[in-house]
């Protein structure tokens, strides 16, 4: 199939690469003068594991190409993988496609525009002539995008047109042949289902964080509590790890979209409260540091391990590290940062700020540290050389924002340890 991909988000690039690898001729719409896909991807996207090599390989094999918007509009199959805030641009794209085509059209909306937006785009096309806008729920996460697309656990799409449904099934066949759940519903229902799932995950994260904060006040260990909760088959262990809050623009924007919908239709502020409490949760490691040093961290050396909003990603989107770095700078502390992938983005953001220093070696970042704040649970942080850490630090204080370390072990090694709910 010949497919045009509209958008330069992570989902667009990952979808383009996977579909091209499956034998389709895929065209990424690009009206800029940039012809190098690696440059166009941007640092956070090209750092997605395996993506840069896949895109380069498919460009070399010419199954993946750039195309301008005028030429792309003439194709029959389109995928919209655009920023959630780009709905107005999407309407222009669909309108332009409609004006240039009287034949059958399939436009798959893969963007998080909100409930009812796919139906609004459909009004620009002739549905009776098999010109269809369908909705395909995107379920990828940064750091695992390619694996999520190649081996989905379930697929949900919204479409009420028989021809379009058949085309979507054919397009998804390489990834759904052995799938247990392929759910088909109306576009509005599929959009609402996507929002509902994301909202449920946010509620679980918010709830376990609230319990962790309460556990500290009650002097109980949240790890024991979550094990008991997870053992109940009605609850399970998924998304039940307390920490210093969630980040990620797409995740946060999707939750905000549902929060706005709930407020508008139901006058409910449940998810607004989750978002507000999540912002407070991001500051928990800083508060623990602040209290430990009795409200005076002026001129201290504070090391941060993990700046990205999640392991496997270089992105800083709404990451807890950003709030904490800002707070440390405001208190005249010196910030020493290590991250396996995000240092380039940190350096772009803070430039030559005299209080912010980046390190490619995590142990070097600990030299003369008055505290270590672990904010992202990268695998390389789980089993470090504690003896080396202790010898390099000026004060053996660890504030574990992800409950990665064993508290009893750290205390036996003469560290001062603070976790979340422990």
TrEMBL record:
Record has Lyase as a keyword: no
Annotated Pfam families: UDPG_MGDP_dh, UDPG_MGDP_dh_C, UDPG_MGDP_dh_N
Enzyme's top EC category: oxidoreductase
Superkingdom as given in the UniProt entry: Bacteria
GO MF, one example: NAD binding
Residues that, per the record, bind substrate: 194, 239-243, 247, 310
Entry's family note: Belongs to the UDP-glucose/GDP-mannose dehydrogenase family.
Protein name: UDP-glucose 6-dehydrogenase
